[in-house]
Specification:
The protein is an alpha+beta fold and 161 residues long. The protein has helices at residues 2-22, 42-50, 58-70, 85-103, 110-117, 140-159, and strands spanning 23-24, 75-78, 81-83, 129-131, 137-139. The protein is 56% helix and 9% strand. Strand 2 (75-78) and strand 3 form a beta hairpin.
């Protein structure tokens, strides 16, 4: 009986290690950032977004990040529950209000949104995951930080024009 428990324990340990290895931190095998679409498409996506939306305030930039989440083909996992991108955006919109009420702290910047709301489950401490069509698993906070980096670079470049 002890041998079976030991073998089972080793199996669970290895399964846990394999799961941990699968989680990527927002970069692909070549070390390039992972975005919600091909990162090279982001400037064109921003131009399209700006035709119907403002990007002058932090709230506008948070709305852009929600737009990116909703229009992606990624799956979102929270505490083991997998949902599509529209449901993920809806949940994260709700979490902003929950966070502000629970911590008595306003989420008023895109940096706050990424660092505080997207850091993961307050209940379990587990990170939120994004799964692109290729099936890899990425920490959602890191992928969204990549998105934010591209947004900031775009805004910096276009502020001088």
């Amino acid at each position: 009986m002890k041998q079976k428990i030991f073998i089972f324990s080793i199996f669970v340990f290895l399964l846990g290690c394999a799961s941990a290895v699968q989680l990527k931190n927002g970069v692909d095998a070549s070390g390039s950032p992972v975005c919600l679409t091909d990162c090279k498409e982001i400037p064109a996506t921003l131009e399209k977004f700006k035709k119907t939306h403002d990007l002058t305030t932090e709230e506008d930039e948070i709305d852009y990040l929600f737009y990116r989440i909703r229009s992606s083909h990624y799956k979102f996992i929270r505490n083991g529950l997998e949902v599509d991108s529209a449901a993920a955006a809806e949940f994260l919109r709700w979490k902003i209000g929950w966070y502000e009420k629970h911590f008595n702290e306003k989420i008023d910047s895109d940096e706050d949104f990424v660092s505080k709301v997207l850091r993961g489950s307050e209940k379990t401490g587990k990170p939120y995951l994004l799964i692109p069509p290729d099936g890899t698993r990425h920490n959602a906070q890191f992928v969204m930080q990549n998105e934010l980096n591209y947004l900031n670079a775009y805004n910096t470049k276009n502020a001088h024009h």
